[in-house]
Amino acid sequence: MRVLLLNKPFRVLSQFTDEQGRETLARFVDAPDCYPAGRLDYDSEGLLVLTDDGRLKARISEPRYKLPKTYFAQVEGEPNERTLKRLRAGVKLRDGRARALEVEHIEEPSWVWDRHPPIRFRKSVPTSWLRLTLAEGRNRQVRRMSAAVGLPTLRLIRWSVGPWELGELKPGQLRELSENERSLD
To answer: What's the rounded mean pLDDT across residues 48-52?
Structure first.
């Protein structure tokens, strides 16, 4: 069994081919039979787990296993305690209620790298950072949840999937886990 951690760059598809000519994982990963365990949107960055083990892939990507995933989101606007409580309690989305297991307003993380192109900057609208942990993995969930409470996401970085963290991986860097690091338990 192989498990790889990739810091997926912004504007890279979480697949190996694309008929539209967009950048894919093929540029960063040369590991036959290893495929993404779950997805990370084209316009999101951060930790993507790849594996050649079907059971592990299912445990990571299927919602029924409720594997926690932590994200750092740069949002437009300033959250208040009421907004954070709404995210914890659950907000109504088209596909049902969605809630964060944990959410907190934080300072910009010191480890955040520059993004190219950078997010749009508007003098009249402040930005802030949230740290959110989810146990679901619905399509664009963090973005939809933040928009539902009036804080549109400008930048989204996945930090962790279960016990595995992005750590010091730079965008485009890949690391293979050792046998001792592979377990989800």
So the answer is: 96
